[in-house]
Amino acid sequence: MNDVVPVARAMKWLVGDRLALVLHIGDGPLAYELADQGHDVTIVGDDVTAIRHPHIAYVRSQGDYLPFRSRSFDAVVAPDLNDEVAALAEYARVLVDDGLLSTMARRYDDSIPWMRKLRTITGDRAGTIAPVNTFTASGLFHPPESQEFNAWQELDFPTLMRFAESTKHPTVPAAALSAVHELWREYGEQTGSLRLRHETQCLRARVDKSQLAAEPEPPDTVLIDFH
């Protein structure tokens, strides 16, 4: 059993029924899942330091101002919708009419023995979606909708390593992941896989552009090039 169907359903719910132009705020694993499903993804943020996916555009930007023309994206995916009004206004500006602002958080079943041991290695980066007080009060979006998706996933060793890296707490050094090899030998080597249960919480809202002021055009976007 794998999580292909639930993940596909969650991605479709976050960005809409069709392939979309998606702006992902910050460099994170959700952007790569969206790109792998065929969406046209741009990552923007001050954490953009390298090109990690051949089919994603990367833009380095600081502050709330987004260096994109108005109505450039069908969906904006942000790590936290409880942002300042200035940031929310920028999300609203770059969305097309009726575009979606979305976020997603995953929680993993720590009652599974191998998962408890992994958390002692990687720390705990999982969480829940924060209350959206600023988001709902901004007047820039229609009332939000929420959805949950639950699934079991089978991890082989390479997938386990990618999972450990993507969920590692920022304070845990990368060298600590060497201990995952021993975890695999103890729990997964005989069967060739480990089973993981996760709960995905999704939140989205459609933009309401009626409250936006006049939208001046920003300067042309500059894609970063690390070559």
Automatic annotation (TrEMBL):
Keywords: Methyltransferase, Transferase. InterPro entries: Methyltransf_11, SAM-dependent_MTases_sf. Pfam families: Methyltransf_11. The keyword Calcium does not apply. One of its GO terms (molecular function) is S-adenosylmethionine-dependent methyltransferase activity. Gene3D superfamilies: Vaccinia Virus protein VP39. Residues 26-101 form the Methyltransferase type domain. GO terms for biological process: methylation. The keyword Transferase applies. This is Class I SAM-dependent methyltransferase. It comes from Aeromicrobium phragmitis.
